[in-house]
Amino acid sequence: MQKLINYALDKENRVCSLMIVKDGRELFCLDPDTRRPIYSATKSVLSIGVGLLSAEGKIDKAAPLAKYLTAQQLGFIPKNKRESFERLPITRFLTMSLKGYPFRPEGESGWIEQALSANIDYAQPPAFCYSNFPALLVGIAAQNAADELLDDFLDSKLFSRLGISRPVFSHTPEGYFYGASGMQLSCGELYLIGDFLLKNAREDGYLSAAVSKQISADGEGYGYFFWVRDSCFYISGKWGQKCIVFPEKNAVITYLSDRKEGDRELLSLALDCVI
Fold first, then answer.
1. What pLDDT, in 10s, does the model give residues 202-221?
2. How many CA atoms lie less than 13 Å away from 220 in the CB half-sphere?
3. Are residues 59 and 167 both part of a single domain?
4. Global model pTM greater than 0.90
């Protein structure tokens, strides 16, 4: 643990915040309160939102994502691809197991059209391919299912429950919650989400599946917008935003950083942390 702490305290490593918590006891804490962008860690928050909607009977992860799109939105899908698209369950998007999407939407308008008119072979077998488009589409489906801004749903059903004041959210040009990126949270707030998962993932059917390996991805496992290893699962955003949950250790390590070159060394120290 001390190696991780020393690394974080060295300003050259650009670790902005770090929390190490075991058995509910704070072992180390560095700047838990400053909110910063969490980038793709937003995807995991979206996944939790899908689980909460599922618990209310508003969405079914096994149902086709098309079921939760409007007629206007479905109209963007090329006619020769619509039938195969309409067979795809939401889980195919939660696991990012569709090849062919660009990395992110471009421009200041038409994101939904970009997502649904993309030249994708929807009949292809599952294969992991990282892109922001699957989370964009899940966010649209989830907001339609909630029948309210997904921001408001998450605020009332998740953040308020955890004692987190309303976060900064990002939206598509069409006004939907952008589920791929754009949120801001503090290290302490991201820890609270990890602690929520630590306490609830085993008993909740959706969350248990979400934090379990569903597909192989870049040498690791991937669940429903969560990265999965043998001893842990974690929330991840670019430039070093992580919340790592160790169920068997009853521990959570959370950090926010500004490591544009990547956080491989930092992640390795956190994964190997003896606590």
1. 899 999 999 999 999 989 99
2. 17
3. yes
4. yes
